[in-house]
Design brief:
mainly alpha, three-stranded antiparallel sheet, 12 helices
Length: 311
């Protein structure tokens, strides 16, 4: 990933970077915001803080007229609001800017047989198991490579996601088939994972998102391995397909189990399950993963109640 220099540039750029750092924005978000403000400055060939409100509005309208999708132009508006309101103290220049409505779209599903063929086509056991966890538990690639051994709560049928999107902590449902695959991976991997569940060059270093994505993409797709809308397959589309499948299979009154466990049910941070950050005394690393306790004894497969402590 390209590293953004912390120093250099104009005083306005440095002030914008300092503002974004204080707000705790991720590196990718900061890069996107700097790119948007930089595009505005290049369009007029003038410093953005010297532009008028009308000029800023004309630039945004031009992006919309050029066919930019709502998510892109909304990101531009957010970047301009941060620059003019928080960094430059010129709120009048963006007071007439508004975000566009993003149309709701259903995720496009992938046939289960195609997913099985894709996963089975990955030769390396680590990458094959990591891809299976990503699909079976509906995780992002960044969440899979950040998993640690203690994050596997086999007795509860849950995965602890310590750093999800936006830095939010959550719990993900762990199906029996994925748990059994993790046990096979554990037994057939030498050396055993100590800290990182899926390690890279050595047990002390995690697998990288780039290497996992490359392992998914390097194999030729089986014949007909496209979604039902003829969209090429990707790791991200596999996750969305898994979420859609869960929504159909696990939906109960109101919200599905998948929505609750993956944090997509509109719950505010801190309103999910309470997750202890240390394992019980005397329990060695990896013992939760190797537990052979029958699934029927795991609270009947139900999720713990809100704020319930998970042993």
């Amino acid at each position: 990933m390209k590293v953004r220099p912390k120093s250099g540039g104009t005083p306005a750029r440095r002030k914008m970077i300092a503002t974004m750092d204080m707000k705790g924005l991720s590196a990718n978000t900061q890069d996107n915001y700097l790119r948007s403000v930089g595009a505005l400055a290049r369009f007029y060939d003038r410093p953005p803080q010297s532009l008028s409100a009308e000029e800023v509005g004309v630039w945004v309208s031009g992006r919309i007229d050029a066919g930019r999708c709502p998510r892109t132009t909304n990101a531009d508006v957010s970047a301009l609001r941060l620059f003019y309101v928080d960094a430059m103290d010129q709120p009048e220049k963006v007071k007439d800017l508004h975000c566009r409505r993003v149309p709701d779209r259903l995720p496009r599903s992938i046939p289960e047989a195609d997913v099985c063929r894709l996963i089975d086509g990955i030769d390396d056991l680590r990458y094959r198991t990591a891809t299976l966890v990503a699909y079976g538990c509906a995780l992002r690639i960044s969440e899979v490579v950040a998993l640690q051994v203690d994050d596997v709560r086999s007795e509860d049928g849950l995965l602890h996601i310590a750093h999800g999107k936006g830095g939010h902590e959550r719990m993900a449902f762990l199906p029996d088939t994925v748990l059994e695959a993790l046990r096979r991976y554990w037994k057939n991997t030498e050396p055993h994972p100590e800290s990182w569940l899926f390690y890279g060059a050595g047990p002390e270093r995690p697998m990288t998102a780039e290497s996992l994505r490359a392992a998914f993409n390097e194999k030729p797709r089986p014949s007909g391995a496209r979604s039902r809308h003829h969209v090429p397959l990707s790791a991200s589309r596999g996750r969305h397909s898994s979420l859609r499948t869960w929504g159909a299979d696990q939906r109960g009154p109101g919200l599905s189990r998948a929505q609750v466990t993956r944090g997509d049910a509109g719950l505010r941070p801190g309103h999910g399950c309470h997750v202890p950050h240390t394992r019980p005394s005397g329990q060695r690393a990896g013992s939760c993963l190797l537990s052979e306790r029958p699934r029927e004894a795991r609270r009947g497969g139900h999720l713990p109640p809100r704020r319930a402590r998970i042993p």
